[in-house]
Amino acid sequence: KMAADTSVEILQKVLENEILQTTKVVEERLDAEMQKLDQMDEDELECLKQRRLEALKKAQQQKQEWLSKGHGEYREIPSERDFFQEVKESKNVVCHFYRDTTFRCQIMDKHLSVLAKKHIETKFLKLNAEKSPFLCERLRIKVIPTLALVKDGKTQDYVVGFTDLGNTDDFTTETLEWRLGCADIINYSGNLMDPPFQSQKKFGTSFTKLDKKTIRGKKYDSDSDDD
Asked: Where is it localised (predicted)?
């Protein structure tokens, strides 16, 4: 027992030492930054301030430009012609090809509405697949819902059904955000190597089984075109 106690004490000391070392490094960095600021003359500080202000102004202008192009809200576009116009004027576009009769499209709508407000750098659209046969043919869209991820006017990637989202109707907005981050269609601040749905895998699976029986009182097929 004494040996065990001793090793616990040693471990505790090691940990305390680690924490102290880390704190010391952080403090030293802060001191260095403060010293740098102290040594700056008025002109240098003014210059730094101006650069900050310019960066803020630029960010604000960029935001206004995005808003004027219809970013910041999840919108339905009426026709295929609109699709080409919309993707031409924005660098990053997510377009949801949906169908009124497909329940899973409503699930997708809910998450996209949230993400459109959060990721103002990307344009979020929806288009009725039945009203856009030419586009569906050209983009080979066979499964509803499908998200077409368009960068610089070119379709780079697709989110087909819920397969990439943990294969459950109960996926979170964070999971879809992670998937869009993987495609580099939004500015994603999380860790791409750590998909949010991994931690809720068990929960998700049991939910899918339950949902299949309860949606509209009939067994709901996978995201196929003939549902």
From this structure: Cytoplasm, Cytoskeleton, Microtubule organizing center, Centrosome; Midbody; Nucleus
Q: Tell whether pTM > 0.90.
A: no
> Could you tell me the fold of the domain covering 72-183?
Glutaredoxin (3.40.30)
Where is pLDDT greater, at 126 or 44?
126
How far, in Å, are 7, 95, 113, 160, 206 from residue 84 at the CA level?
68, 11, 21, 21, 41
Q: Among 39-53, 107-121, 145-159, 205-219, which stretch is predicted with the lowest mean pLDDT?
A: 205-219
Angle at 130 between CA 156 and CA 157, to 5 degrees: 10
* Residue 1's pLDDT band (cuts 50, 70, 90): low
Looking at beta carbons, which pairs linking 199-205 to residues 24 or more positions away fall under 8 Å? 200/166, 200/172, 201/166, 203/170, 204/166, 204/167, 204/168, 204/170, 204/171, 205/167, 205/168
Q: List the chain domain ranges.
A: 14-66, 72-183
Element spanning 159, H or E: strand 154-160
Given this model, what pLDDT does residue 32 score?
A: 85
